[in-house]
Amino acid sequence: MTKSRIALALTVLLLAATASPAMAYEWLRYPHSPQWHVVHRGIYELNNRIAFLEANPDIDEGYKGPIIRRSRADILRLRAALYPADWRWATPCCYGRRPIHIR
């Protein structure tokens, strides 16, 4: 009975550790994650759709206006799903150095 309780407790702990919000943060934070690529691709496709609609003079403004507005709202929503880039460099940024003064 106690072995089954220990196994259950370890399983619950393992599931809680793998499905934590920190793990979700890591999935959308780095560009190598599949979720980041899906969101980035969606933004790219919506931008292309907006550009196509704006460049086509044969489509009525009353028809394409709401579509463009909805697409821009979707882009903002998708951008909010992505976390800001946090690039890890091996060397410090140039602004972190002291300025060089030449006489």
The shape is flat
What is the alpha-carbon Rg in Å? 24 Å
Termini separation comes to 81 Å
Q: How many separate helices?
A: 4
Output mean pLDDT.
Answer: 76
Which regions have little confidence, pLDDT < 50, spanning 5+ residues? none
List the helices and strands and how they pair.
Layout: H1 2-18, H2 21-29, H3 34-55, H4 61-81
Helix pairs in contact: 3-4
If you had to describe this structure to a student in words, what would you say it looks like?
By secondary structure, the protein is an all-alpha fold. The protein is 67% helix and 0% strand. The protein has a domain at 25-83. It is flat. The mean pLDDT is 76.
Name its key features.
67% helix, mainly alpha, flat, 103 residues
Q: Short summary of the structure?
A:
The protein is mainly α and 103 residues long. It has helices at residues 2-18, 21-29, 34-55, 61-81.
